[in-house]
């Protein structure tokens, strides 16, 4: 079997086993690393022509996304790897030698199928396009355009992602009212998406205050409905309670039963109005070829983190004002949670690269996440 015949997850596994028997690759025991290997093999075999396969390809990856927490880490990995291999092979470039994002999205989705079987496509679409994406089962994905315009920048929302460090475990325990609760959750999502879709071009501080108040209430209702479904966790409920004490609404995100919560920082409207100063690297769920950075330069919160070789270093928050968000982060950190600032609704995948440059690779693997952001 040749690489060009890898059409199913079974084909990829067989090919990986073949390479392992030939002592060409190691098969990791960690299921997450094994999935990452399968994705890399699939994308390489699909995108790199035979004439370029004689010298192989060395790929270095760094990320600050908590793995397995329902934050789209696999879609971010698939999207960044598809763009990287697509540039290297030239197979995802358009007539002007620019990366064709539609083709990247298509390949990222196929790579997600390797990992998840039947993904919705919403994760990779959000990673690549940025902005907001609405998913309804059986309907096409609806994307709130991210055209870097002022109106879109104002739609950006500031959150604190809080990692419980408990593996996610989705299991509905209240099946009796599930249909009604899921319908309620769907209505909440529709209300939020419609609000962001119809944001006025000329907004005032009063608009932001009203909008953020409504979003805070929607977040509270969303979590309450999810908790009634039985997909919460005592750690998540603790984060919700601590956030409420400091004046913020929070909810579980991802699969629930552990994983992460998100806290909406509603009182930094100036950050939204200056969102053009934030590159796509500042959006935690989005990834570019270099990194998925968690550095956010908002008015209140700034995060610096050093992450090397899949080992998470110390994360330090520097809050410029003695604000309730500072107190919130301090309390959550004291209780053993890890916090990351994230801008939702900003730009998606971006690409900055230097091919076949050993010095660049050495710098990439040794520099701090902050340096990558500045690059």
TrEMBL record:
| Keyword terms, alphabetized | ATP-binding, Cytoplasm, Kinase, Lipid biosynthesis, Lipid metabolism, Magnesium, Nucleotide-binding, Transferase
Gene3D superfamilies of this UniProt entry? 3.30.230.10, GHMP kinase, C-terminal domain (3.30.70.890)
| Cited InterPro entries | GHMP_kinase_C_dom (IPR013750), GHMP_kinase_C_sf (IPR036554), GHMP_kinase_N_dom (IPR006204), GHMP_knse_ATP-bd_CS (IPR006203), Mev_gal_kin (IPR006205), Ribosomal_Su5_D2-typ_SF (IPR020568), Ribsml_uS5_D2-typ_fold_subgr (IPR014721)
The Enzyme Commission number assigned here is 2.7.1.36
Q: What class of enzyme is it?
A: transferase
Q: Look up the record and name the pathway of this protein.
A: Isoprenoid biosynthesis; isopentenyl diphosphate biosynthesis via mevalonate pathway; isopentenyl diphosphate from (R)-mevalonate: step 1/3
Domain GHMP kinase N-terminal, first and last residues per copy: 52-127
Q: What is its main location?
A: cytoplasm
Task: Identify the residues that the record assigns to the GHMP kinase C-terminal domain, covering every copy.
Answer: 213-269
Q: What GO molecular function annotation could you give as one example from this UniProt entry?
A: ATP binding
Kindly state a single biological-process term from the GO annotations of this entry.
isopentenyl diphosphate biosynthetic process, mevalonate pathway
Q: Which reaction does it catalyse?
A: (R)-mevalonate + ATP = (R)-5-phosphomevalonate + ADP + H(+)
Q: Where in the cell is it found?
A: Cytoplasm
Q: Report the GO terms under cellular component.
A: cytosol
Say which family it is in: Belongs to the GHMP kinase family. Mevalonate kinase subfamily.
What is the designated name of this protein?
mevalonate kinase
Q: Which organism is it from?
A: Smittium culicis
């Amino acid at each position: 079997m040749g690489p060009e015949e890898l059409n199913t997850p079974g084909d990829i596994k067989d090919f990986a086993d073949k390479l392992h028997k030939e002592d060409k690759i190691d098969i990791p025991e960690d299921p997450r690393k094994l999935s990452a290997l399968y994705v890399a093999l699939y994308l390489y075999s699909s995108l790199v022509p035979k004439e370029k396969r004689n010298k192989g390809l060395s790929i270095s990856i760094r990320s600050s996304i908590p793995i397995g927490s329902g934050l789209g880490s696999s879609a971010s990995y698939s999207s960044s790897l598809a763009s990287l291999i697509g540039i290297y092979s030239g197979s995802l470039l358009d007539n002007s030698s620019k990366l064709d994002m539609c083709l990247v999205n298509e390949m990222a989705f196929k790579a997600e199928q390797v990992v998840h079987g039947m993904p919705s496509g919403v994760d990779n679409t959000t990673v690549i396009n940025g902005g907001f994406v609405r998913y309804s089962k059986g309907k096409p994905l609806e994307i709130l355009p991210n055209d870097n315009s002022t109106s879109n920048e104002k739609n950006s929302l500031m959150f604190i992602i809080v990692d419980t460090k408990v593996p996610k475990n989705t299991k509905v325990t209240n099946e009796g009212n599930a249909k009604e609760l899921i319908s309620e959750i769907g209505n909440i999502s529709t209300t939020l998406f419609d609000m962001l879709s119809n944001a006025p071009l000329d907004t005032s501080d009063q608009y932001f205050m009203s909008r953020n108040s409504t979003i805070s209430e929607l977040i509270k209702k969303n979590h309450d409905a999810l908790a009634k479904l039985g997909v919460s966790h005592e750690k998540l409920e603790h984060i919700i309670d601590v956030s409420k004490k400091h004046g913020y609404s929070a909810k579980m995100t991802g699969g629930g039963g552990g994983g992460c919560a998100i806290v909406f920082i509603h009182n930094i409207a100036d950050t939204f109005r200056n969102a053009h100063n934030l590159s796509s690297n500042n959006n935690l769920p989005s990834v570019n070829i270099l990194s998925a950075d968690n550095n956010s330069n908002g008015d209140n919160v700034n995060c610096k983190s050093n992450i090397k070789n899949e080992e998470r270093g110390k994360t330090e928050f520097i809050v410029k004002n003695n604000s309730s968000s500072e107190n919130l982060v301090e309390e959550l950190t004291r209780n053993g949670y890890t916090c990351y600032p994230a801008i939702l609704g900003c730009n998606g995948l971006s690409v900055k690269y230097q091919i076949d440059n050993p010095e660049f690779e050495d710098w990439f693997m040794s520099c701090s996440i902050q340096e990558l952001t500045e690059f």
